[in-house]
Amino acid sequence: MDNPPLAPEALAPRLAEVYVALGPVYRRVARLVEQDEQVSGLSVGVRNVLDQLRRDGERTVPQLARAQDLSRQYTQRMVDQAAADGLVELIENPAHRRSRLVRLTPAGKKAITAVLERELALLERVGGDLTAAELDGTLRVLHHMDLALIALEEDDR
User: Fold this and answer.
1) How far apart are CA 61 and CA 64, in angstroms?
2) 88 with 80: CB under 8 angstroms?
3) What is each CA distance from 49 to 13, 121, 155, in whole angstroms?
4) Distance between CA 144 and CA 42 in Å, rounded?
5) Spatial separation of the C-alpha atoms in residues 123 and 99, rounded to whole Å
6) Taking the model in full, what pTM does it have?
7) Is it the case that residue 38 has pLDDT exceeding 90?
């Protein structure tokens, strides 16, 4: 094997480099999304709710909150804002009488599609001759980092 897995003592400092690199990238993306709010009218929180509904379909507020690792209260405020703007609707949930499902409206589908098209146009400007294998590796690393953090949170409970 030409590229064996790193031992934990070698892996940890390399993962720390990933955290250091990820912070500024995340903040820049958040700023771009916030700037886009002036064009799209969608806050970062509402944008995330709409995108999650687009990807995953109807969800309850607690399901939306868990998937984004956000508080239920914050997510409820984002859903309420999206509903007030006509971007989502709350429908009966056959599995639970008190927790309604959140569903995209046609206006919500149109809004999130337009935002994603603008975002993809920006992402097409990323250079570096990146390969699918490199992106697969990046996603694998981030997934394992996330799983480790989830385990730490559960240990602290």
Assistant:
1) 5
2) no
3) 34, 21, 28
4) 31
5) 37
6) 0.83
7) no
Q: What is the pLDDT of residue 86?
A: 98
Taking the CB of residue 51, how many other CB atoms lie within 10 A of it?
A: 17
CA-to-CA separations, 63 to 3, 101, 125, in angstroms, rounded: 39, 10, 33
What is the residue whose two structure tokens read 């949170």?
153
Using alpha carbons, select from 54, 71, 49 the residue that is nearest to residue 62.
71
Residues in the chain: 157
The answer to whether 54 and 128 are in contact (CB under 8 A) is no
Give me the pLDDT at residue 61, please.
97
**In the structure encoding, which two tokens stand for residue 112, read together?**
């999130």
User: pLDDT grade, residue 58 (50/70/90)?
Assistant: very high
DSSP string, 16-61: HHHHHHHHHHHHHHHHHHHHHHHHH---HHHHHHHHHHHHH-SEEH
